Write a sequence for this structure.
């Protein structure tokens, strides 16, 4: 397990950037955190680490999955609106999860039965006792 | 008679061409899961290597499930497309039948198990009798423990195969009466799909591409809910 503490959006992006730089095809990252905690910021940094323009990265809340072409294909999921595992199957998720790219999944617990055993978990938390901009980023999984 | 067979029901993507009792080409890849991008180029590669004019193919044999939902859809779409474009008839080959057909003429029970995730496998039990492969049970999605229970109820040795073996080997190894198919016949192969299709063609089980239906086993939630509603309506 690795724990990072950041004090600005830029620092949060940097953690994502560095993580993505060492990522490999087939890896799945599950991203957890409350609304407004900076999941999108983190993901923009991650995308940049894969050589994708961060301004191209938009929320997949309504599309379920957005695909980007970087050094590796990058699949950004938000499965919040997925109502059942069957519905997830209609997205053709297997070709993403077991394909040639890297997956970042928000709200992954909704589809946890479909996740392979080896996934990474990223949790972003606020702590107002430290500062308004403080974020604790915990990365768990074999790489941590 | 030429049969072009495909299987994309699991992690393996496989295509084969059978011509008059000979597998002229077989191409299988068990790597990642990008069948939507690989199966057509694989068929294309085969066509080039053996100078096959696809319009001379008599039947498309499609492994029709159960299996990976995405994989099934890709296989069916490919088969339907080729059938429609070339006006070729289709043979729907149940995946578990083709898999069991990897194992030939034995007194043992044959039990293909395909990893269905969510702690389940797709399975059925088979036995050879008088040169015919007989299916003894329904195609089902079962927990591995249920499969083991059922397998133990047979007096005969049970041969397991399929990608479920890789996942559940430890549990299966505990039973003395269980054994495994060799590596080269453990997974889906389009050659087996083609060979089994020959049997089905002899029995007249030939359809149009538009009639090809898949065996999902697990019904989509919407369908389950509808059935539930219909059941309840019947009671009233």
């Amino acid at each position: 397990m690795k724990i990072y503490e950041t004090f600005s959006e830029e620092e949060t992006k940097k953690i994502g950037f560095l993580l993505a730089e060492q990522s490999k095809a087939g890896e799945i990252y599950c991203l957890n955190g409350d609304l407004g905690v900076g999941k999108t910021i983190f993901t923009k940094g991650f995308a940049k680490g894969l050589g994708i323009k961060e301004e191209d990265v938009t929320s997949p809340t309504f599309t379920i999955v957005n695909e980007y072409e970087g050094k590796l294909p990058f699949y950004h999921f938000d499965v919040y609106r997925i109502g059942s595992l069957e519905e997830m199957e209609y997205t053709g998720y297997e070709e993403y999860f077991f394909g040639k790219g890297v997956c970042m999944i928000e709200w992954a617990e909704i589809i946890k039965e479909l996740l392979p055993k080896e996934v990474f978990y990223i949790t972003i938390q606020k702590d107002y006792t430290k500062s308004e901009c403080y974020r604790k980023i915990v990365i768990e999984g074999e790489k941590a | 008679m030429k049969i072009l067979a495909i299987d994309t029901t699991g992690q393996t993507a496989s295509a084969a061409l059978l011509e008059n009792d000979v597998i002229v080409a077989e191409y299988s890849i068990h790597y990642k899961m990008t069948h939507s991008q690989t199966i057509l180029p694989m068929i294309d590669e085969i066509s080039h290597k053996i100078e096959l004019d696809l319009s001379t193919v008599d039947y498309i044999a499609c492994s029709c499930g159960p299996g990976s939902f995405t994989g099934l859809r890709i296989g069916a779409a490919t088969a339907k497309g080729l059938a429609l474009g070339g006006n070729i008839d289709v043979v729907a080959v149940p995946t578990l039948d083709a898999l069991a057909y990897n194992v030939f003429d034995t007194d043992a029970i044959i039990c293909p198990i395909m990893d269905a995730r969510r702690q389940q496998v797709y399975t059925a039990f088979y036995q050879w009798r008088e040169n015919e492969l007989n299916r003894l049970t329904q195609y089902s999605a079962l927990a591995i423990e249920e499969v083991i229970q059922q397998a133990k109820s047979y007096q005969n040795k049970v041969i397991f195969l399929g990608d479920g073996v890789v996942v559940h080997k430890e549990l299966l190894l505990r039973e003395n009466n269980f054994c495994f198919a060799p590596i080269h016949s453990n997974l889906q192969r389009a050659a087996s799909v083609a060979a089994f299709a020959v049997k089905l063609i002899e029995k007249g089980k030939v359809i149009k591409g538009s009639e090809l239906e898949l065996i999902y086993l697990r019904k989509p939630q919407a369908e389950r809910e509808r059935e539930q509603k219909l059941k309840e309506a019947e009671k009233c």
Notes: Residues 3 and 138 of chain A are 5 Å apart (CA to CA). The two ends of chain A are 5 Å apart (CA to CA).
